[in-house]
Amino acid sequence: MKKKEQFIIIPEEAWIKGIENKDYLACYCFIREHALMTNKVIFTKKVLYDQLRVKRQNIKERVCQAMQQVLNDFCDDDAKIDFKKFKVNELICVFLDEEKLDRKGKSFAKIYADDLIKLESYATSQQNYQDMLLLLCYYRTRMIKRNTDSTVEIAPAILYKYLLDISTELQLPLSATVRCLDILQEVKIINLYRMNTKKINDNYFTGKLIIYDYVNRDELYSNEEILDAAIKYVNKKSKDQ
User: Fold this and answer.
1) Which residues of the chain have pLDDT under 70?
2) I need a labelling partner for 147 at 20 to 30 A (CA). Which of 29, 49, 108, 110 fits?
3) Mind listing the pLDDT tens digit for each residue in 194-203?
4) 14 Cα distance to chain centroid
5) What domains can you pick out in the chain, each with its CATH number?
6) Residue range 81-133, pLDDT digits in tens
7) How far is CA 1 from CA 5, 37, 172, 219, in A?
8) For the residues of 158-223, what is the DSSP string, one character each?
9) What is the C-alpha to C-alpha distance for residues 236 and 241, in angstroms, rounded to an integer?
């Protein structure tokens, strides 16, 4: 029997806020990750700072403001706290409102526990971690979802986009977008396939980027079958446009 995988749900409205305020998205993921099995979260500021790779005092203050906003948005109304009053090693216990957390609507990102472990083990800085987290949420929300009634040819579980469009939508520098995608591939969270790369006057021009999960979780198709179907799917869509 296949072991049930743990994951957290990130509503689109939560990671969209992360485009303007990446601390908010990181804090939201933190409380969801620490409340995988219950609606109660117990942690300290030190644990929060360590996980988010925060060292400078001014950044710590900014993270505290973001966490206060997250707790205001998702805690029980009668259990809200003043986050700034807690000392760095003081135990913090908060109860989350399940109804507020479950308002995911139609668009959301499913982030698995092993995704978070890989991100946290590889990230070398706060910005590095937050950029990768934002990009992963974007991909998992925007990707084509395949249900049990769909074949891989009809709905391959992929995202296909121009690199520049991804960078623009997430308000990330192009260089940061490329770096984050490469790291996500290196830590085996995603696979990348670049369509129709051409060299013109010593410059490389890349077509749409196909992104798909490194770990094939439904086990119905191999990664090779998914990529083959994805290339045919993208080529067909391009001809139809």
Assistant:
1) 1-4, 102-105, 147-149, 197-206, 239-241
2) 29
3) 887 555 455 5
4) 11
5) 7-101 (1.10.10), 143-240 (no CATH)
6) 899 999 999 999 999 988 887 665 678 999 999 999 999 888 878 888 999 99
7) 12, 21, 42, 13
8) EEEE-HHHHHHHHT--HHHHHHHHHHHHHTTSEEEEE---EEETTEEE--PEEEEESS-SS-SS-H
9) 9
